[in-house]
Design a protein that fits this description.
The chain is of the alpha/beta class. About 60% of the residues lie in helices and about 10% in strands. The longest helix is centred in the middle third of the chain and has 47 residues. It starts with a helix and ends in an 8-residue tail after the last helix.
Length: about 475
């Protein structure tokens, strides 16, 4: 028991914060730097501009430079300190300065990315649109380090590290990028990251200031103090929930990617087969896991066994597609890195070509139908035949055939005719011969034949043209 007591006293001595605390100096220093005026405004605009340039050119060093000169940390510390020591004036000034700093940074980011000739979403930009629960931890412990370092009589060099770790400036500049590109997803994600960073730095400042028992400027009763604590706790929980949900989605995606990787390396890879590229196609339903392999081909039975093992790795429900390349593993090993890169690019190109071919086939099918419908002679000829010969009930073109081999260059067109009841055979023969002569006079480059049908299928292409067209052509044809 005595050992535990000694260990407890030893730990309290190690983690003790009060020793070396400059309470009045801390309050005075933060209060003095809270107001955003003059030089601080210029530093804020320069910091935002540098950060925007770093984000635009994907330069981490430039982004860090922009964060180091940012005066944004002081108003955020002032908010937490103002609540902790119950200084209403400090709290109001800190909130005003924080709002002005946010507006200036957002405006600078918007203007920069609006006129930037680059303006693409770089890796640094994309890294700040999906805040997670881990960002809450970064902001909180960064705030703890900031207020602890700022409260010492002997100042340390921790403040620059805090500015880099908490990364306040990049998220608000990315929010400006989202506004400039009219992307609500980028704007909301980046602004939410900026907000949780600011809030949890202030929360850490509040908690450490309470622990240090910094002198209060005003006294409030216990009921008001309890309400303030409840509000802070409730608001912190509400702010944290979205980041926890996003963090869960990130973990779920990481588990999925890990399952795919383990499946490919354990089940697909063998001594005689090597997977060289894996991709998940989200556009299909269900999603497709496409694996490109070299070496021994996968049999149908082996593929079925692989599909049954997908659920074992937490990726059940995926459709498995294996693409076999005609290259042995040894040959693939001998390929240079440039060739491998070109091969991967060609695989992607082939996939795009395959998709384009499918679309082209559908278009060509539709065009073939149109060409087939329009490849027959003038369809108005059918209406003329029915107008000239009232004895005919219906007439259509049949499929074209070719003549004997020695006349394959001449195409035969067959006209199927259905006569009305009561028409004499001699009259039918006379009408058929007249139709042939009429067709040959109109279409000199084709040969024609007329056959009699008792019943004819009615197709859309043989519908009678409108009455206006018939009337317009009434005086055109003449009986031969």
């Amino acid at each position: 028991m005595e050992i535990l007591n000694k260990f407890g006293r030893f730990m309290r001595l190690i983690v003790r914060l009060k020793g070396g605390t400059d309470a009045e100096g801390t309050i005075k220093n933060i209060t003095k730097n809270v107001k955003l005026r003059g030089v601080n405004v210029w530093m804020m605009v320069c910091s935002a501009t540098l950060t925007c340039i770093g984000l635009d050119v994907n330069s981490t060093a430039v982004i860090i430079g922009g964060m180091l000169i940012s005066p944004l940390m002081s108003p955020i510390l002032g908010v937490g300190l103002g609540v902790a020591i119950q200084d209403r004036r400090l709290l109001i000034n800190a909130l005003k300065s924080f709002g002005l700093a946010t507006f200036l940074s957002l405006l600078t980011g918007f203007l920069y990315f609006f006129i930037s000739p680059l303006g693409d979403a770089t890796t640094e930009i994309n890294a700040r649109v999906t805040p997670t629960f881990l960002d809450v931890g970064v902001a909180f412990f960064g705030g703890v380090a900031g207020i602890v370092a700022g409260s010492r009589r002997d100042k340390t060099n921790a403040i620059p590290g805090v500015a880099i770790a908490t990364a306040l400036m990049p998220p608000i500049c990315v929010a400006g990028f989202g506004l400039a590109k009219m992307s609500s997803t980028v704007f909301l994600g980046a602004f939410y990251l900026y907000f949780i960073n600011s809030f949890f730095i202030s929360l850490a400042t509040y908690l450490i200031s309470v622990m240090l028992r910094l002198p209060k400027r005003e006294q409030i009763d216990d009921e008001q103090y309890t309400n303030v604590k409840r509000f802070i706790i409730g608001f912190a929980i509400i702010v944290t929930i979205p980041s926890a949900l996003i963090f869960y989605d990130v973990l779920d995606k990481l588990r999925f990617d890990k399952g795919v990787k383990n499946f490919v390396s354990t089940e697909v890879r063998t001594d005689n087969r090597r997977p060289i590229q894996t991709e998940v196609v989200d556009s299909t339903d269900p999603k497709t896991l496409k694996i490109y392999t070299v070496g021994l081909a996968v049999s149908d039975e082996e593929k079925r066994n692989l599909e049954d093992k997908l659920s074992k790795y937490g990726i059940g429900g995926l459709q498995l597609k294996l693409v076999q390349l005609n290259v042995s593993p040894d040959e693939f090993e001998r390929l240079t890195s440039d060739v491998q890169t070109n091969l991967s690019n060609k695989l992607n190109l082939l996939q795009n070509v395959e998709d384009d071919q499918k679309k082209t086939i559908e278009v060509l099918k539709a065009q073939i139908v149109d060409i087939k419908d329009n490849s027959q002679p003038d369809k108005s000829f059918l209406n003329d035949v029915k107008w000239l010969f009232p004895e005919i009930a219906d007439v259509i073109w049949q499929e074209a055939t070719t003549d004997t081999p020695e006349h394959t260059s001449n195409q035969f067109k067959t006209l199927a005719v259905a006569f009305k009841e009561g028409v004499e055979p001699t009259t039918k023969n006379l009408i058929e011969s007249r139709i042939v002569r009429l067709a040959q006079s109109r279409f000199a480059d084709m040969r024609f034949n007329v056959v009699e049908k008792t019943e004819l299928p009615r197709q859309e292409v043989e519908k009678i043209v409108s009455q206006e067209q018939i009337n317009a052509n009434t005086n055109q044809p003449q009986q031969p």
